[in-house]
Specification:
Helix content is 43%, strand content 18%. It has one domain: Aldolase class I (TIM Barrel, Alpha-Beta Barrel), CATH 3.20.20.70. It binds xanthosine-5'-monophosphate. The site of xanthosine-5'-monophosphate has 22 residues, from β3, β6, β8 and α9.
């Protein structure tokens, strides 16, 4: 399901459905997985997740950073799974009871836990708990964690905590300063890349550039 080939998880944060499908037609094949965030889904509805899933046959991650009480988290995870999402991102600070409940409801839907935000403010609060979040994700047997790709040393550290088998997905690459390939070199499974691709003059050429940078570190 979550196979690493190019190492690219596309952040599909474009304005609307037409732009989404235009981009996917151009570079979708070269992406290992597709990540949705709120803006596109709020504009087009959750049905776009189902549509993209049916058309692209790629793993889909709903990066909804779920951070509520268990009853609500669990509903969000269930609804995403029913819409075709293969994974959902949750925050670590929801605590153990909420995470346990999420794991129970998730079933085949992979859960990913945020360990540290990529923006400068990620160092204000989340960084102090990165180790605990990573350890908690491992303890609860989650599919993976998110780590900041613009801080490869943190990715390397998180990999040590969670061991070799769980996935690490990294934002912070390209537009947020991280170098293409650096997170995968540090132990990530996928580099989440949005603006660097969809804002590029030539997204096809940009993806070729990214693949050239990740290739030396791809294991499969
Ligand atoms: P860009 O355009 O910066 O898109 O390549 C990155 C995508 O990832 C989201 N993002 C994050 N998600 N933890 C996350 O779980 C983070 O620290 C983080 N930083 C960025 C961002 O919203 C966009 O969808």
């Amino acid at each position: 399901m979550w196979k690493q080939h190019s190492g690219i998880m596309l952040a599909l944060d474009v304005e609307n459905r037409a732009q989404a499908f235009r981009l996917l037609d151009l570079i979708g094949e070269d992406c290992d997985a597709i990540k949705f965030n709120y803006p596109l889904v709020l504009r087009e509805g959750l049905s776009i997740v189902t549509e993209v899933k049916n058309r692209c046959k790629k793993p889909i991650l709903c990066d909804f950073k779920v951070a509520d009480v268990p009853v609500t988290n669990d509903r969000i995870i269930r609804i995403c799974g029913e819409a075709g999402a293969d994974g959902v991102m949750v925050h670590g600070f929801i605590g153990m009871d909420a995470l346990q409940s999420a794991v129970q409801v998730a079933g085949n839907t992979a859960l990913f836990l945020v360990t540290q935000m990529t923006n400068p403010g990620g160092l204000d609060f989340t960084a102090q708990f990165t180790d605990e979040f990573a350890a908690m994700a491992r303890t609860f047997g989650l599919a993976g964690v998110q780590a900041p790709g613009n801080r490869p040393e943190v990715v390397r550290h998180v990999r040590k905590i969670i061991g070799p088998d769980m996935m690490i997905v990294c934002c912070g690459i390209g537009a947020q300063g991280g170098k293409f390939g650096a997170a995968i070199e540090a132990g990530a499974t996928f580099e989440i890349i949005g603006r660097a691709i969809y804002d590029a003059k030539d997204p096809v050429a940009k993806v070729a550039e990214i693949k050239a940078a990740t290739r030396p570190f791809i294991k499969s």
